[in-house]
Amino acid sequence: MSVAEGDLLWEPSEEVRRTARVARFMEERGFGSHDELWRWSVTEVGAFWDAIWSYFGVLGDRGAGPALERAEMPDARWFLGATLNHARNTLRRAEEDPDATAVIFRTEADDGSGPSRSRTLTYRELAAEVAEVRAGLRALGVGRGDRVAAYVPNIPEALVAFLATASLGAVWSSCSPDFGAPSVIDRFTQIEPKVLIAVDGYAYNGKRFDRSGVVRDIQAALPTLTATVTIPYLDLDAPAIGEGRALRYAELRRSGEPLAFEEVPFDHPLWILYSSGTTGLPKPIVHGHGGIVLEHLKALTFHQDLGPGDVFFWYTTTGWMMWNYLIGGLLVGATIVLYDGAPGGDTLWRLAAETGVTYFGVGAPYVLASMKAGLDPGREYDLSRIRGIGSTGSPLPPEGFGWLYDHIGRDLLVGSFSGGTDVATGFVGPCVLLPLRAGVIQCRGLGAKIEAYDEKGEPVIGEVGELVLTEPMPSMPIYFWNDEDGERYRDSYFGVYPGIWRHGDWIKVLPDGGCVIYGRSDSTLNRGGVRMGTADFYRVVEGFDEIADSLVVDTGQLGAEGRLLLYVQLAEGVALSDDLVGRIRAALRSTLSPRHVPDEIRVVPGVPRTLSGKKLEVPVRKILLGTPIDKAANPDAMANPEVLRHFTPDS
């Protein structure tokens, strides 16, 4: 279908309005509309999060203190005196419904040459494996506050090891094995882990990658390690890697000890995530047990309407925060689908059909790639169980919304999310009680007081502004690792507006509470005084069948207008003809403005992206302004560092 921003695509049925999980909460609390609920959640902040703890029956000791001791950011303090454990809450269904399916795992490494790695785990089986690995880690001396680092793909062993780590009150941190050694070392040396868990290799896009040499390099850079655990994955008979105390995963597992949980304070460190790290050392972002439990219960239940009976999938790696969000599905009693491999072609749609996925999550680029490839998954596969589709990583344009309704199904909610690693969730996202319009994210998250600030730092409605958060959320970082005085933390989020979280995105908040994200505010196009996010630009350019990908950069600086450069990766067999250039320019002129017609269009073999798929506009801009490539971007944090040389000033 042909759609424009704001076109109505879906409305909830009366049955959905009646049975949605958030509707039950609203009825219990006496709210007549979702807007009323949101306004209460961001004005009575402590009361809202206290209600979340109570409503979900969080396992732990609530304590006698207020939910929010101090509201001033960045020093908000939550649930002082409370204790809990994330792993205990994640595995609660193992006690309530132990034979329910917890995990479905599929992998590209199953090439038919040996025993299958694919498997299914019930909650009972998952809890039993966690108990065995917990006992093994404890035998290695891992306890409260120790760090366990993992160099692992999206496999059940990663999930089990994380839950075992959390059950001990130890701190988890992971990188995907497609990260190069320098990138991993930049991350793990900052946190001084006691134990390293790593695979021998992985498979991707039809190729097999031995990582044993990289694991040895990582070991050599981590003097704090007391043991290394090897998961034989590429080669099921692979030996333990490294010297010193090295053992295989099977040797780590110890049977006979019951599963137990270390009860820890609300803000005790749960895991350490990292900023993209395209320049400088990645920021080690620490989240607490309590904040993540509450936020993921709220987001997965009230915004995605997930619970027991759902099969939840998101395409991710262990190096992206969406892995942490995906495993949060266990908190609400859902089945989660773990997939390790390339997403090429219709692979993920076929996976969804085979595993009975009810909520399907991907990055927005995958939706657009499926659209460009002319796929028709809803006709090729039985996707009738899907009732929700999540999209994140970058703004999903209206055409992407329309394609999903045309080619997947009409009776589903397309839930575009925007948030970040910084809070391990979305600031804005879907709601099954609200109508869905093309290109518009339905609402601000419950408990997330998101506003758009103009150049004067004043909130605006219906205008594009800086995305800010003016009240605290419990899943905000508790701190950055090795940032004793908190200076790096404050500078990252509160340096522009004291006491107000500035996220670095452009957002427009509509009068009815809907939101449109326009890309990063630090990669803004500013032509003749008109500011515009890059998402609008990409929507026009990548609407051409001849364009596979694109990147736009404005080289202007304070007080001086620069050049607007458009880089395009052409579809296979296409040349950049004068006709194509003319049509692109005309489309940008008519759709955006004459100011946004590029000064030059250049062909490149690929667009630089982070390992999680985000376009690297800011590093390219720095390169064009004279920063050396090795200073502008960290190649080990990139999916395709080889393309950067095509973005130099004289290229």
UniProtKB/TrEMBL annotation:
Pfam families named in the record: ACAS_N (PF16177), AMP-binding (PF00501)
Domain of life: Bacteria
Domain (AMP-dependent synthetase/ligase) ranges: 92-472
Keywords from the named record: ATP-binding, Ligase, Nucleotide-binding
Molecular function per GO: ligase activity
Domain Acetyl-coenzyme A synthetase N-terminal: 35-89
UniProt cross-references to PANTHER family, sorted A to Z: ACETOACETYL-COA SYNTHETASE
Family statement: Belongs to the ATP-dependent AMP-binding enzyme family.
Protein name, entry field: Acetoacetate--CoA ligase
Species, as recorded: Actinoallomurus liliacearum
Lineage of the organism: Bacteria, Bacillati, Actinomycetota, Actinomycetes, Streptosporangiales
